């Protein structure tokens, strides 16, 4: 049976879907991280502390994200993936749009919850779709492309914010027809929501669900179910490996979430950079780093897989975690703005190791539980990193350093031990991963073509 990749030809259709999935990650990153660069203007208008802001930006997103992730993964394993993804994009886009029109802190928290619900569908659905379309050739390249959407989304939101604040000049508001004067930071939220309102119909109407591959057959030749029972059986069979990978991924998430939320504040407070410069500078950094990581990571992993190195993604992930410890420590002591930009750029690149763990997960899992296992990793990623990272860095800022310019020290205190633990856990997982991946290859090839 041919792959029903999209309404285009098979080869073009696969890459068309991969590009749409990449754009989904772009929109997701824009809507998730738009709040990070708006710390200063939001605090000025709403009067909230660093700790409260960390709870809204981190916890407000994560709480329902975590609660919805496993149900979302189960839906992905059973239902029409493009339509599920389209609905999710529409939901978080409308929630971000609504954030731009409210002044109540509790409503902003509520809308962040809805953004989290919608984005719980993104990685399970896109990983599952792309893994079926690129089962063998260009597997890591396709997954790296959609992951690049996260870096590109960060660049978009940073540059969008910088552009709007530059256009506003000395004015604090934009005059919007029917609404009158609207603060610039609210306009950023409104603008961030608009691309998703275009992307959702494209996903719904132009993408077909591909044929599901790499499914583990039962002895009676029927495919195993996609329920929670099958997930429990998979986790029991590979419990040591799953625990090590979840621990390593969770530790990476601490570094990732802390950098995503507090790096703009680090440049603004510690190195006195303007919000416009931060937007352009960090935006360019994310674009360059994302492209470099996409090319290097995908070529290394695809080359390793072709040579029979089943654990190639984990080899790269543990290397990056170990190498990131030194630049993470440097954030606390660097005085020069130029050196800070270089150090942060290196750290952001090495932190892409968490994306190589994401590439490792679909190859490890049979189709019946792929979405649920991806969702489980994301639960850990956001429970550990999404809440603990931003919140604890905020607490360090307030309680240890008086809410001042020592954001770099707070980041170092959080990230250095996290990357060390990630390197240890992923190193311990390499052998088990290799055996599990090869075992699945044999089972699938023995069950069906």
Q: How would you write the strand order of the largest sheet?
A: 1-2
Percent range of helical residues? over 70%
CATH secondary-structure class: Mainly Alpha
Rg calculated over all Cα atoms: 21 Å
Main beta sheet: strand number and arrangement?
2 strands, antiparallel
What would you call the structural class? mainly alpha
Tell me the name of the CATH homologous superfamily.
MFS general substrate transporter like domains
What's the number of structural domains? 1
> What's the tally of helices?
17
Instruction: Give the overall silhouette.
Output: globular
How much of the sequence lies in strands comes to under 5%
CATH topology: Growth Hormone, Chain: A
Low-confidence stretches: 1-9, 219-224
Give a description of the structure:
This protein has 449 residues and is mainly alpha-helical. It has 17 helices and 2 strands. It has helices at 10-33, 39-46, 50-78, 81-99, 105-119, 122-133, 139-168, 184-206, 228-237, 239-270, 275-306, 312-323, 325-330, 337-350, 353-364, 367-400, 407-447; strands at 173-176, 180-183. Strands 1-2 form a two-stranded antiparallel ribbon. A hairpin with a 3-residue loop joins strand 1 and strand 2 (180-183). Helix 9 crosses helix 16 (367-400). Mean pLDDT is 82; it is low at 1-9 and 219-224.
């Amino acid at each position: 049976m041919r792959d029903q990749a999209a309404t285009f030809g098979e080869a073009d259709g696969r890459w068309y879907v991969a590009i749409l999935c990449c754009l989904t990650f772009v929109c997701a990153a824009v809507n998730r991280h738009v709040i990070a660069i708006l710390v200063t203007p939001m605090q000025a208008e709403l009067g909230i502390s660093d700790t409260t802001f960390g709870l809204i930006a981190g916890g407000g997103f994560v709480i329902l994200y975590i609660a919805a992730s496993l149900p979302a993964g189960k839906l992905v394993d059973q239902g029409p993936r493009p339509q599920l993804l389209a609905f999710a994009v529409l939901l978080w886009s409308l929630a971000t749009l609504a954030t731009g029109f409210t002044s109540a802190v509790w409503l902003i928290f509520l809308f962040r919850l809805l953004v989290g619900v919608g984005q719980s569908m993104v990685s399970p659905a896109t990983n599952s779709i792309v893994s079926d379309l690129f089962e063998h050739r260009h597997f890591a390249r396709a997954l790296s492309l959609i992951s690049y959407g996260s870096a590109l989304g960060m660049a978009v939101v940073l540059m969008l914010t910088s552009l709007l604040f530059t256009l506003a000049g000395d004015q604090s508001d934009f005059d919007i027809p029917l609404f009158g004067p609207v603060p610039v930071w609210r306009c950023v939220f409104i603008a961030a929501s608009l691309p998703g309102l275009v992307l959702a119909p494209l996903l719904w109407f132009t993408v077909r669900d591909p044929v599901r591959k790499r499914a583990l057959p039962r002895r009676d030749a029927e495919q195993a179910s996609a329920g929670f029972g099958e997930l429990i059986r998979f986790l029991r069979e590979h419990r040591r490996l799953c625990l090590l990978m979840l621990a390593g991924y969770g530790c990476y998430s601490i570094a990732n979430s802390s950098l995503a939320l507090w790096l703009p504040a680090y440049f603004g407070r510690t190195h006195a950079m303007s919000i416009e410069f931060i937007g352009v500078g960090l935006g360019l950094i994310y674009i360059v780093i994302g492209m470099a990581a996409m090319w290097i990571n995908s070529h290394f992993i695809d080359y390793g897989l072709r040579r029979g190195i089943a654990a190639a993604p984990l080899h790269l992930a543990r290397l990056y975690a170990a190498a990131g410890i030194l630049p993470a420590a440097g954030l606390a002591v660097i005085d020069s703005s130029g050196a800070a930009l270089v150090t942060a750029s290196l750290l952001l690149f090495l932190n892409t190791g968490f994306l190589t763990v994401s590439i490792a997960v679909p190859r490890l899992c049979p189709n019946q539980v792929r979405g649920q296992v991806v969702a489980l990793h994301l639960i850990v990623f956001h429970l550990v990193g999404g809440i603990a990272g931003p919140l604890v860095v905020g607490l360090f800022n307030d309680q240890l350093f008086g809410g001042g310019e020592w954001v770099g020290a707070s980041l170092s205190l959080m990230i250095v031990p996290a990357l060390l633990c990630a390197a240890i856990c992923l190193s311990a997982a390499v052998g088990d991963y290799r055996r599990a991946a090869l075992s699945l290859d044999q089972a699938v090839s023995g069950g069906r073509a």
